[in-house]
Specification:
Layout: H1 2-24, E1 30-34, E2 42-50, E3 66-74, E4 79-86, E5 93-97, E6 105-113, E7 118-131, E8 135-144, E9 154-158, E10 160-162, E11 172-181, E12 184-190, E13 196-201, E14 207-215, E15 220-227, E16 230-236, E17 243-248, E18 255-262, E19 274-279, E20 282-290, E21 296-304, H2 305-314
Parallel strand pairs: 10-14
Antiparallel strand pairs: 1-21, 2-3, 3-4, 4-5, 6-7, 7-8, 8-9, 8-11, 11-12, 12-13, 13-14, 15-16, 16-17, 17-18, 19-20, 20-21
Length: 316
């Protein structure tokens, strides 16, 4: 009888340890809700992006801070790029706004180039749109020398994308997203019902060359991550409910992995506009979520990388 009791106690202890271990390590997405980014005079916020190096790794300064740029719609009707920083991806502090001369130049993507010590801020000019059957913005570039002092940023004007389809030429689209592979920079350009397009350049600047359609379908505003020697891209749409997942081994040819890959069931709509980062074996996804009166906030979810890989492999 004593032996039986000891066996039962041992099994119960093992089960308890297993249960606590599983609870301690979540095996699915953890939704953290809205994050406090501490931006003053903010009416709405969209389009977050981590500041990155050319090879897409996240920029981190000598104090250990990551930086996030985003579209900020202020209460004074100024539309500026705002910057916040974080060490732990949960707590954020406000850094500043781009100069008021850059009113309307938002949906940013910012690269720190260690070769010249400058920050290249690509944007969509939403207060100088081109009206066709849908609205397009002009894509442009501002350059600064200090991400902690945005007064150092100056506008270098609109891009020229040689060979771009006539509908978009020479610089129309949204949400530029740039990665350097070997000796070439590639820029993804969103155009909603007119697909997602790819352009290329040998250096950061305003001169680019059109390459091809990257992804077909009504999609926009990509967020990318690199995992197991493969590129992954999440894409959504402005009035959508989720993000679809695509993959590529060479950045030029993309294949759908899964529709409705990322959702937040707390929201009936989940308009695209997000960024992601892998830190300490966790994948963090920061994305915009809707408020009333066409306003937005930023929310965050995370998942263990091994569980993210499992989710991806489930649909292959």
């Amino acid at each position: 009888m004593i032996a039986v009791i000891l066996i039962i106690v041992a099994l119960a202890a093992t089960a308890a340890v297993f249960y606590l271990t599983v609870r301690k390590k979540p095996t699915k997405w953890v939704y953290c809700g809205a994050i406090d980014i501490g931006i003053p005079n903010m009416y709405s916020v969209k389009d977050p992006e981590f500041v990155r190096y050319p090879n897409h790794t996240a920029f981190r300064d000598n104090e250990g801070f990551y930086y996030v740029v985003m579209s900020v719609f202020k209460t004074d009707n100024k539309w500026l790029t705002g910057v916040v920083r974080t060490k732990d991806l949960h707590n954020y502090s406000f850094v500043g706004f781009t100069p008021t001369q850059m009113d309307g130049k938002i949906a940013p993507y910012c690269i720190y180039n260690p070769d010249d010590g400058k920050f290249y801020l690509y944007y969509s000019d939403w207060k100088n749109i081109v009206k066709k059957d849908i609205n397009f913005s002009r894509l442009g570039l501002a350059v600064g020398i200090d991400i902690k002092n945005l007064s150092t940023f100056t506008d270098h004007g609109y891009l020229t994308v040689e060979g771009m389809p006539e509908l978009f030429a020479p610089n129309l689209g949204w949400d530029p997203y740039i990665v350097k592979l070997e000796d070439t920079y590639y820029m993804l350009i969103s155009a909603a019902k007119y697909e997602v397009h790819l352009a290329a350049a040998k250096s950061l600047g305003t001169q680019w060359n059109y390459t091809k359609i990257a992804v077909t379908g009504i999609l926009e505003n990509p967020t990318l991550f690199y995992l197991d020697s493969k590129w992954y891209m999440m894409l959504g749409i402005y009035n959508g409910t989720c993000y679809d997942l695509y993959s590529s081994e060479n950045f030029k040819h993309w294949n759908v992995v899964k529709k409705n890959f990322f959702q937040d069931k707390n929201y009936s709509q989940l308009p695209s506009g997000s960024t992601s980062i892998i830190v300490n074996d966790r994948f963090y996804h920061i994305y915009q979520t809707p408020l009333e009166q066409n306003r937005f906030q930023l929310s965050m979810a995370y998942i263990r990388v091994e569980d993210l890989i499992t989710e991806i492999n489930k649909v292959k």
